[in-house]
Structure formats: structure tokens, C-alpha cells
Amino acid sequence: MLSHAVAVIALSLVVGLGISAVVLSIVILCRGKLYHHLSPEARPRRYVLISMLALFAVFVIWFPVWMAWPNALVSRLLLGLFAVTFGVVGLTSRFTWLVDGYFKRKGWPLR
To answer: What is the mean pLDDT of the chain?
Structure first.
């Protein structure tokens, strides 16, 4: 019985952290008060926040489907989408200098 309570508390904590991370990212992307309180060097790059939000959204869709139907075709397709998204976000975070150069050439704001 105690292990169920611990699992519920842990799940609630993870869900709360996920919701707060999404809300914080959206507040920063909308350039609200929090964005202007951050120093320009401390502001995160916009494409990093957007790519992390996209990865989180794909995960939130894929994981429950995978838990319910692990061998279904839709689960495997969503797993492929998650893997591709994870790879793109990983490569983007590895080669930030390349993405930064592209954004500067296009004239898009980095932060």
C-alpha cells in the first residue's frame, strides 16, 4: 500500500514539473515580464525552447499509447516519430554554432 502512495506522489511530482516547465517555456517564448528580467546573455535561444517543447509534446503523445498498446502499429509509428524528433533535437543541441549561423543569415532573432 505504501509503494502505491509513493508512486502516486512521484507521478504527481513529475507531472507538476512537466507542466511548470511548459508554462515557463511559453512565458519566455512570449517575451513576457520574466523574459525582460533575464539578462540578454542568460536568455535561452528560441529554437532550443521550441525544439524541446516539440520533443516533450511528441513524448506526451507517444508514451501513453506505448504503455497501453506496445505492439500496435500506431505505437511503433509514434516511436519512430519520437526517435526522429529526439535525434534532431540532439543534433541541434550538438551543432548550435551551425544553427546560430543559419539564424543570423536569415535575420531571425536568436533569443
So the answer is: 88
Distance from C-alpha of 102 to C-alpha of 52, rounded to nearest angstrom? 19
Q: What digits encode the pLDDT tens for the residues 42-82?
A: 888 888 888 889 999 999 999 999 999 999 999 999 999 99
Q: CB burial class (10 A; 0-12, 13-18, 19+) of residue 62? A: buried
C-beta of residue 86 within 8 angstroms of C-beta of residue 56: no
Residues 15, 63 contacting (CB under 8 angstroms): no
79-107 residues labelled b (16+ CB within 10 A) or e (exposed): beebeebeeebeebeeeeeebeeeeeeee
Nine-digit cell string for 36: 525582460
Delimit the domains of the chain by residue range: 1-42, 44-111
Cα separation, 34 vs 26, whole angstroms: 11
Question: What pLDDT, on the 0 to 100 scale, is given for residue 1?
Answer: 63
C-beta atoms surrounding 27 within 10 Å = 13
Record the pTM.
Answer: 0.78
